[in-house]
Amino acid sequence: MNSLRLIETKDGSHSLYNAELNETYHSIHGAIQESKHVFIENGLKYLIHHSQPKNISILEIGFGTGLNALLTALMVEERSLKIEYESVEAFPLSMATIAQLNYPDRFNSSEAKITFNAIHQTEWNKPQGISSNFNLLKRDLKIQDADLGEQKFDLVYFDAFAPDKQPEIWKLPILKKVADALNSNGIFVTYSAKGQLKRDLISLGLSVEKIPGPPGKREMIRAVKQ
Ligand SMILES: C[S@@+](CC[C@H](N)C(=O)[O-])C[C@H]1O[C@@H](n2cnc3c(N)ncnc32)[C@H](O)[C@@H]1O
Fold first, then answer.
1. Does residue 29's CB lie within 6 angstroms of at least one atom of ligand 1?
2. pTM of the model
3. Does the structure show a pLDDT above 70 at 1?
4. Could you give all domains of the chain from N- to C-terminal order, each with its CATH number?
5. Surface-to-core class of residue 60, CB atoms within 10 Å of its CB (0-12 exposed, 13-18 middle, 19+ buried)
């Protein structure tokens, strides 16, 4: 995609601007700050706190820059936890674009650089071990075409472009496919707080709460499959 431009967000971390959609990959108030708040704090840490699992399977919609995958891999490094991470991405970024991102430099560790490179250098569509406790499967296809299976995931990071930019991704058939792929008590988190999303998730049998969003966003949604 040549309509992408590198931008710096308010916390100093990079993001990408997609001119075709007039949309950024992350919040302009802080890319790392947003990913940590929405997916790590209110998704992964919430799950760990409530279920104390030894193994966690995560599904991400929209791999993009790999920031959520990096934060997840770094978070589990200090814990005796094993993560299976599957991510669906319709438009993988070029290595030239990825090389410009400053995410590894935002962490004071050589580990972050190694992990970031490993996440991006692994082949698509093939499960790969990134570390002893983080396995990654990047799937190069549209979520519309993906078979996600049933009751496979403990946690979903729903990180598509915003509902007003890409409404087709936030429609009931896709949400149903994602909800079917969740285990019972599985958790769905997203930065969006749209009322229609809340109603659709409830209609699919999830219990939904609106919780405080990251800086610049009042609320976000977390839902739990019953
Ligand atoms: C908000 S950005 C993702 C941010 C990403 N999680 C990150 O940390 O960089 C949305 C992503 O969804 C991808 N995408 C767009 N349409 C898609 C589709 N139909 N199926 C799967 N991914 C899609 C985009 O290419 C983009 O990478």
1. no
2. 0.98
3. no
4. 30-225 (3.40.50.150)
5. buried
